[in-house]
Amino acid sequence: MNAELVPAVLTEAEGRPAVNSSYYSSINPADGQCLQEKYSDKFSDCNFGLLGNLYACEGQPGKVIEVRAKKRTGVHSLVTALRNTLEGHYPDKSLALGGTFIIQKGKAKIHIMPREFSVCPLNTNDEVNNWLKHFEVSAPLICQSVLVSKDPGLDLRVEHTHCFSHHGEGGHYYIDTTPDSVEYLGYFMPAEFVYRIDRPTETNEVGRD
Ligand SMILES: [Zn+2]
Asked: How far apart are CA 172 and CA 110, in angstroms?
């Protein structure tokens, strides 16, 4: 079924098995609301299908970029603001960050895909948005985020953030809905490499936000 995965996986290494601590949100068939579940409660594998922007690191201690922000004054989300800032400072480069941020106060707009694929093709952003289920969810929200300041020619989705919470809400983050009271705290690392896996041969610009 379709769902919004919030990936958090410790890969297999010598002497210990892989640990999949991911969450996923789907549409609850009982009431049409958000149903957030822990991946490991139902599955034990680390397979991955469909679409995702994943950040991988060695998990070693070291310096990271800390981002603190509160009170949104513009129209862009935290992630878009970070991307635009990077592109403004380094217009000739493609810079990628991955990390985690917490929406500590306020609320956010998210979507969750319906469990079933659309029965008809979705050809425009409006058609995609009419098919998706949108919700407003409350802080604290823990967000897994990947962003690229500029597509280096890999036909990337240049930002993608999914969130989970400890109160049962989660999904695909767009932006906070409470600009006056929102507070963010995040930790990011620059990427050394960007890999594009299973790049589609046919592409379009639909549904990239
Ligand atoms: Zn998403």
From this structure: 5
CA separation for the pair 90, 149 (Å, rounded): 9
Binning the chain into helix, strand and coil, the percentages to the nearest 5 are 10, 35, 55
Using a CB cutoff of 5 Å, list residues around ligand 1, an ion.
Answer: 172
> What are the pLDDT digits (tens) for 128-185?
999 999 999 999 999 999 999 999 999 999 999 999 999 999 999 999 999 999 999 9
Backbone CA torsion sign across 119, 198, 90, 80? positive
pLDDT tens sequence across 83-110? 999 999 999 999 999 999 999 999 999 9
Name the nearest CA neighbour of 108 among 186, 170, 41. 170
- As assigned by CATH, the class of the 4-190 domain is alpha beta
CA proximity to 159, closest of 104, 95, 108, 105: 95
Ligand 1 centre distance from Cα of residue 6 (Å): 9
